[in-house]
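Notebook entry, cofactor series.
This is the third protein in the set we're modelling with a bound small molecule. For this one the ligand is glutathione. I'm keeping the input format identical across the series so the outputs can be compared line by line later. Sequence and SMILES below, as received.
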Amino acid sequence: MLRLYDHLSSGNGYKCRWLLTQLGHPFQRVEMDIDRGETRTPEFLALNPNGRIPMLRLAPGDFLAESNAILRWLAEDTSFWPDNRRDKAAVLQWLFWEQYSHEPNIATARFWITHKVAMDPERIHALIAKRENGHAALKLMERHLTGRDWFVGQNATIADIALYAYTHVAEEGGFDLAPYPAIRDWLDRFAAQPNHIKITDAVGTPVSVADALTSERQGA
Ligand SMILES: N[C@@H](CCC(=O)N[C@@H](CS)C(=O)NCC(=O)O)C(=O)O
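Returned structure with ligand:
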């Protein structure tokens, strides 16, 4: 069975658990305490040298990291991955943009606030920069979504999933979404899809970190 190493408040983890649920895949979910460094232990680093969740175990000994790569793997032969060359490239364009221009600003600002990271003057300056860059990203999304229902093509793709994950909780990072009506309509449209789950929904069969790592050690 697929096994997702995850952290419930993580938008990157949510992308994966959202699509797993949407596609009806049974999966195990391992809740990792990222505030206590559970992704930085030698045992976890042996599975993902980058020391981060989400990570999806595809089969014993076969681990895939990076939320957007996991989305791409899951979306094969589904409506969430387009069937024509141009739209595939457009989806990838949004996935790369999300990781470079959106997530590092909006998700990081949210993380610092919701995980109560100490705010020294340097970090306050960094937060101001992240707010500016985050709003630049939101403005770009607003322009793109004006007159469109979805980021690429006529239905939701993994581009929408990747961008929904942190946009819908941007207000937790101090980003007011009131000036972005097209984004707000798109958020409502996204959440109206059948089988939608919330970021706080602990879906999947729970497996403890200790049990999961023991079974990885045994290759089971
Ligand atoms: N680019 C990665 C980012 C993953 C990431 O930043 N994960 C965070 C949680 S959202 C994490 O595991 N943090 C724990 C740590 O860095 O120790 C992805 O999209 O999956």
